[in-house]
């Protein structure tokens, strides 16, 4: 195989795409790392006074959504198109449920606003930035679903599904750290 | 039918996903239970979060694929 042919092969593009996606994830993780540092430095052993049950529910919803995202990727990798479509839809619905839980319920029921004090500012900045990523992940899922319904993916070629899955899992990993930082660690601030 | 495009190990791959979900659920429950029962265990909670993140990175995000360049479609 010539050098040109090797460089235009799907496998070559796939490994480049993977590297690019991981570099993007790495760069994006610095944003969330900065927010975590702000939380630790500004709040110390204090944390926002939040609904613990709601925090556990939204965390569980996001974990289950990651499971279905993995199931969707596994399905398309094995040519199981029906399972891929169903799992992608469930993932998107769970992502929207997470957004409703955090932005629709937690933000509305919280006893403080973003401008009340430093606790409020940190809480709304962290959850807001994360919710924005969940929203963009849901949009990514809808695009993948639309293309999946049109038969654009196969067991041999499904890079977009893999990219969407990795982005979704990254959003989950961020929440894995944000959940204890906001809900569990420290004493509730009055 | 899509049997011709199916790779071996589909059932095993689905089962692995279920096992990972159960482990993550148990760790999340432990995280919540510990925080409620024994306040002040910050380092333990951070350690649990690191383990959970490692599991997601390894099993769901397949981080080794980019290092070893394995798992082509």
Task: Please tag this protein with its features.
heterodimer; A: 190 residues; mainly alpha; 6 helices; elongated; B: mainly alpha
How would you describe this protein?
The complex is a heterodimer of chains A (190) and B (73). Chain A contains six helices and two strands, in the order H-H-E-H-H-H-H-E. With 190 residues, chain A is mainly α. Chain A has a two-stranded parallel ribbon with strand order 1-2. In chain A, helix 3 (52-77) packs antiparallel against helix 4 (81-109) and helix 4 packs antiparallel against helix 5 (118-149). The longest helix of chain A has 34 residues, at 10-43. Chain A is elongated, with a radius of gyration of 19 Å. Helices cover 73% and strands 0% of the residues of chain B. Chain B has helices spanning 10-37, 42-60, 63-68. In chain B, helix 1 (10-37) runs antiparallel to helix 2 (42-60). Chain B contains three helices and no strands. Chain B is mainly alpha-helical. Chain A binds chain B through residues 10-11, 14-15, 18-19, 22, 45, 52, 56, 59-60, 63-64, 66-67, 69-71, 74, 77-81, 154-159, 162, 165-166, 169-170, 172-173, 176-177, 179-180, 183-187, and chain B through 2, 4-7, 10, 13-14, 17-18, 20-21, 24-25, 28, 31-32, 35-36, 39, 42, 45-46, 48-49, 52-53, 56-57, 59-63, 65-66, 69, 72-73.
Which stretches of chain B are low in confidence, meaning pLDDT under 50 for 5 or more residues running? 1-6
Largest sheet of chain A: 2 strands, parallel
- Distance between the terminal alpha carbons of chain A, to the nearest Å? 68 Å
Question: How would you describe the shape of chain A?
Answer: elongated
Helix content of chain A: over 70%
Give me the secondary-structure category of chain A. mainly alpha
Percent of sequence in beta strands of chain B: under 5%
Q: Please write the string of helix (H) and strand (E) elements of chain A.
A: HHEHHHHE
Structural class of chain B: mainly alpha
């Amino acid at each position: 195989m010539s050098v040109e042919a090797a460089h235009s092969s799907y496998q070559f593009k796939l490994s480049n795409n993977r590297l690019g996606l991981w570099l993007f994830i790495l760069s994006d993780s610095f944003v969330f790392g900065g927010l975590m540092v702000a939380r630790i430095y500004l709040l110390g052993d204090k944390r926002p006074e939040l609904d613990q049950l709601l925090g556990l529910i939204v965390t569980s919803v996001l974990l289950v959504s990651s499971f279905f995202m993995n199931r969707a990727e596994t399905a398309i990798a094995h040519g199981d198109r029906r399972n891929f479509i169903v799992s992608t839809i469930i993932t998107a619905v769970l992502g929207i449920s997470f957004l409703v839980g955090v932005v629709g319920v937690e933000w509305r029921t919280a006893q403080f606003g973003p401008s009340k004090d430093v606790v409020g500012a940190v809480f709304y900045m962290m959850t807001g930035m994360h919710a924005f990523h969940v929203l963009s992940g849901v949009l990514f899922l809808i695009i993948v679903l639309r293309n999946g319904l049109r038969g654009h993916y196969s067991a041999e070629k499904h890079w977009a599904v893999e990219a969407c899955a990795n982005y979704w899992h990254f959003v989950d990993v961020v929440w894995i750290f944000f959940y204890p930082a906001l809900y569990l660690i420290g004493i509730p601030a009055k | 039918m899509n049997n011709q495009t199916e790779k071996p190990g589909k059932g095993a791959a689905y089962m692995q996903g279920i096992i990972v979900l159960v482990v993550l659920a148990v760790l999340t429950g432990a995280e919540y239970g510990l925080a409620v029962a024994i306040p002040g265990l910050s380092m333990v909670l951070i350690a649990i979060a690191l383990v959970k993140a490692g599991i997601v990175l390894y099993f769901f995000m397949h981080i080794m694929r980019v290092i070893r360049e394995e798992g082509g479609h």
